[in-house]
From TrEMBL:
Pfam families: AMP-binding (PF00501), AMP-binding_C (PF13193)
Superkingdom of the source species: Bacteria
Domain AMP-dependent synthetase/ligase stretches: 9-104, 115-311
InterPro entries: AMP-bd_C, AMP-bd_C_sf, AMP-dep_synth/lig_dom, ANL_N_sf, ATP-dep_AMP-bd_enzyme
Gene Ontology molecular function, alphabetical: acid-thiol ligase activity
Segments passing through the bilayer: none
Name of the protein: Long-chain fatty acid--CoA ligase
Location of the AMP-binding enzyme C-terminal domain: 363-437
Family annotation (PANTHER family): LONG-CHAIN-FATTY-ACID--COA LIGASE (PTHR43767), NONRIBOSOMAL PEPTIDE SYNTHASE PES1 (EUROFUNG)-RELATED (PTHR43767:SF1)
Length: 458
């Protein structure tokens, strides 16, 4: 069933219920349903129907969600991109596939009879961009069933229902935040979607929400919400590993954390709803394929939630085998069914130094515990004899970063000698991907290019 049909049903049952609250306006379910129908009629009038690809680059969350759901109702595949892109940029990022229509302005409402969808579970019903930490976007497309059939599982795990107010504090160009907003509308909840990261206003917005979807580094900002409000009960956290102590801090604030691991190409893979560790998401099988005796192996997944692939058949990290298993190159400790998945990050984040392999995420996990470190990216810097040396780039919590002496002391206490950074830098703020994860490759490129904002700690 198209997500738009869920919205139309909610509008019939509870027309006055707030549906979308965004910077470009607020819509009840009745208003959203009317806008979706009118926009779908407009799309049909433009020749857009089943099999068409509709590129959507709108800054306003309400207008964007209306366009997405109108394309869904019309039977087309919506593809959400950056509102700042022009036609040339769209052509480059979509590769050999040319969208049938580019929506750069809010869709008008055309009069006429109700649009009735003609849909099937195997229809291509959603496409979005994935850059991971590389900054190079690829358009990932998925079938309707792989998109919508997981909704009920997430609703059960996080307890999200029609009475909730769901805060989605990030850009809908990110698959993490787009899924959160569409899921909220599918279950009949209210989606509060600022459309961009609200910064200092985040705590105030969280005060009226019952559920929030976010990435780990934003969780602390949410927990600093006004104490007088006890509405927020659940934080759904994805995109990266939780910082040490984050779950305990959330529990102290009365907020349950549902953390998950996944990828745009794989959707949900594993979930930790109680602090007991990551276990397979419903319907998911996991294998960690490691060489005999190896400490790490590659994570492979088989599930109903896998994406079809990349539009235009552009190259990317997604790989498949003959058994319908898929991988994007993430690595983990050896795993057996029934155990906790001990993820160690993306294989491309491994650093070869002096004949040893260092996983960047292992080092970052320790350095995030240093007082005064807000976030950190670890990369390999070229070295004439070692190949690379471990290099840490810090984002400080306050006005200045911790001293190098403190950093090195903490590294000696928590890391093996080969893992300890040999070079230390500080930056006012780390560049991030659309989903809010530190953009590791961009940080490495800026460092190599001598960016003056990256200051060496001595």
């Amino acid at each position: 069933m198209p997500v738009a049909e869920h919205v139309l049903r909610h509008a019939a049952e509870r027309p006055e219920r707030p549906a979308v609250c965004g910077q470009d306006g607020e819509l009840s379910y009745a208003e959203l349903a009317a806008n979706i129908q009118g926009a779908a009629r407009h799309l049909r009038g433009q020749g857009v129907g089943p099999g068409a690809l509709v590129a959507i680059g709108l800054a306003g969350p309400a207008a964007l969600l209306t366009a997405v759901l109108a394309a869904d109702l019309a039977g087309a595949t919506p593809l959400v991109g950056d509102p700042a892109w022009g036609r040339g940029r769209w052509a480059r990022v979509t590769g050999a596939v040319t969208p049938d229509l580019l929506v750069a302005e809010p869709l008008p409402c055309a009069p006429g009879p109700a649009v009735t969808p003609d849909s099937a579970p195997a229809d291509r019903a959603w496409a979005c961009f994935s850059s991971g930490s590389t900054g190079r976007p690829r358009a990932v497309v998925r079938r309707r069933a792989s998109w919508t059939d997981s909704f009920a599982h997430l609703g059960d795990l996080a307890g999200i229902g029609p009475g909730d107010v769901v805060l989605v504090p990030g850009p809908l160009t990110s698959s993490l935040y787009a899924f959160a907003a569409v899921h909220a509308l599918a279950v009949g909840a209210t989606a509060v979607v600022p459309g961009r990261r609200p910064g200092t206003a985040l705590a105030a917005r969280a005060a009226s929400a019952t559920v929030v979807h976010l990435v780990p580094h934003v969780l602390g900002d949410v927990l600093r919400r006004p104490r007088r409000s006890g509405a927020l009960r659940t934080a759904v956290v994805g995109g990266a590993a939780l910082a040490p102590g984050a779950r305990a801090a959330a529990a102290e604030a009365g907020v349950n954390v549902v953390a998950y691991y996944g990828a745009t190409e794989l959707s949900f893979v594993a979930v930790d709803a109680d602090g007991g560790g990551l276990r397979p998401f419903p319907g998911v099988e996991i294998e960690v394929r490691a060489e005999p005796g190896a400490a790490l192996g590659e994570v492979w997944v088989r599930s109903p939630w896998l994406a079809d692939g990349y539009l235009g058949d552009v190259p990317g990290p997604l790989r498949r085998d003959a058994g319908r298993w898929a991988s994007v190159g993430d690595v983990a400790r050896p795993y057996r069914e029934g155990e906790v998945l001990r993820l160690r990050g993306r294989g491309g984040g491994a650093i070869q130094t002096g004949g040893a392999t260092v996983v960047a995420e292992d080092v970052e996990e320790v350095l995030r515990t240093v007082p005064g470190v807000g976030d950190v990216v670890v990369v390999g810097s070229p070295h004439p004899s070692l190949g690379s040396v471990v290099t840490a780039i810090l984002e400080a919590e306050g006005a200045s970063p911790p001293s190098r002496a403190l950093l090195e002391a903490m590294a000696r206490g928590g890391l093996d000698a080969v893992q300890r950074p040999r070079r230390w830098y500080a930056v006012p703020s780390l560049p991030r991907t659309q989903s809010g994860k530190p953009a590791r490759a961009l940080v490495a490129a800026r460092l190599a290019g001598g960016d003056p904002d990256i200051r060496r700690l001595v």
